[in-house]
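On to our target:
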Amino acid sequence: MKDPAIAEAFEATWPAAEYADAGGFRIGRATGAGRRVNSACTVQSWSPADIDDVLRIQSDWRQVAAFRVLDDETRLIAALTDRGFQRTTPTVVMQADVSALTDRRIPPVMAFAVWPPLAIQRDIWMAGEIGPERQAVMQRVVGPKAALLGRIEDRAAGAGFVAIHSGVAMVHGIEILPDWRRKGLAGWMMRRAAVWARENSADRLALAVTRANAPAIGLYHGLGFRDAGGYAYFVKP
């Protein structure tokens, strides 16, 4: 991502439990919390020997050999492809001005931002396989943060997480229960995140979504989000 504030927020608002550096790479570890916090990414210029050091650390940690690579890191993509890594889970990072999502009044009792998370929010996350390990990532975040709760048809049906770093409010872990999807709830939750962000002095909202999730990308574009960059994982089969 060329925007340094979004790049910093992306890392700071979804942190691993621990890190190790190998030359130009930083490797995260948070067992069970997903590939984003259990992969290596570049933090400065790197050499081919640094890749070997990453693989040794990941082996010692009993991790899958995995790198998170920005779309424009063509040299790294070539180096990993030559080593037999395969590209998976292409993802787009999107951003919007908070003002684009705060132009409408949110219906009463439709969406809330609270901290700490309520039991019902944790249950909704669990139903979407955002289990204790991923929820622990949220707990580690330092700085302003909130758990989003979405309600529709008189029941709690959505949960999400938002945190601020460098003036950017990054949204993670949006989950809507299956029977209440495609009813507009996610959009209202994003608007609540924007209101909360504005109240906490952030001027932009950002998120990451897999490129295969066309309905979500369409929703976010409709709300005023625009592409800010992208990445994919390179994994040893």
